[in-house]
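hi!! sorry for the late reply, been swamped w classes. u asked for the two structures so here they r. pasted raw, havent cleaned anything up. first the sequence of the first protein and right below it the tokens
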Amino acid sequence: MPRTFKGWYAVALAAVLQGVTAVHALETDVASRWNDGTTEGWSAVDNWLTPYPVANPGSYLGISFSDRSQGVPGIAFIQADANAAQGRFVGNYKAGNVTRISFLFYSPTHLPDLAQLVLHSPTSGRYWYYPLTGIQVGQWVRFDIPVSYEAGWTLETAPTPEAFSADIENVDWVGVRIFQGQTDAQSFGLDDFVLATPAYDADGDGMSDLAELRAGTDPYSALSVFRLTMSSTDEGIVIAWPS
């Protein structure tokens, strides 16, 4: 299985990335939606560190694997570094109050063999992985991944809360690692990728996602929002809200 390349690949990619000086320009609560038809500087590499093509199939970021029926299924990292969206995803996640990483994942025809959200810190050279479970064929699936050790982030060896806390103070890229499912030709997509703070309002209805979750409304639908109205009647004040 392609997972046998994982340890070697992580070491080699770390060596490449540590030689690059990134401009830290962290910007939170701004989603990449690829509506301009470009890839916004996002890139990809395969398990041999070879640049892997990414595309914009129509207002989202896409990656495709060719038919590998005569070989090993493919692996690719789709990543945002200092070249992506003016370095929006690079910097100190702790100081920037990044509490979660939110995005949509699309698998039109096949389930990936494995998919993970990945953070890399050039300070330690460590890669942190978070498994993406619940992917469904034929529909966009929303992921809201807490940026906290307790949420289930792992290292290949000896993860600790202290190590995670230190590494999110200097992140030089974030991305998604995808292992091709079986060997057929297949594609995957990303959309609405954002480093979110507690103030983030995904649907723009004036109520933060955190407040909507507490109120029991849908933070991704502007039609679902908690609002009070007050009116005066002969009997007194009437307070009403949707339920």
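now the second protein. again sequence first, tokens right under
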Amino acid sequence: ALATAQGASLPQHAGRRYSVLGMRPVGVFHPKIVLQLGRNKARLTVASANMTASGVAGNLEVVGTVEASEEDPRFAPVLRQALDYLAPLVNVSPAGAKQWTWALAKSLWMQRAGAAESATDAQGRTIAFLSDKTAGNIASNFVRLVGSPRVNRLVVVSPYWDNDLGALRSLAQRLGATEVCVVLNPSSQLFPAHAVRAND
């Protein structure tokens, strides 16, 4: 962000240590995914943060991080699922394909991991990477993974909402949530308060 924002000097490592690739998506496309691959460990971060100086280093954001390594590969299938999701997005140009091949060559252990949408940690909690590339939609797969018993309290953090709160109501209903807590920034006034019903 610093290299491109100031404009005083051109980035010295563009195309060598990193590449910036354009996208021409069909429909909605707004993922915030960082996948770091190493020789014997990797990290997947899925966040609400945009790739800007304020998003990465300034704003209050929601971030989930999952790590895996050769020594502890429990979550490697989830990272591999993310890897497979990103592959066709990065390999859209010779520059992207070059960087992708370079990264994979240095993380052979990750290439050997089989992809899976979810894995379970030592406490029995499910970790999952859900995308529009899996069967069904993200919400349906989320509800399926939550399973039963029904949810007592659903806590939702989001900067954007549909005008009639239909998505929030649908999710709460499908999870059987008896209580819904919405975390808001009152100064932004983006929540459609007019859509809240008396019996909500």
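hope this helps!! also noticed smth abt the second:
The mean pLDDT is 86.
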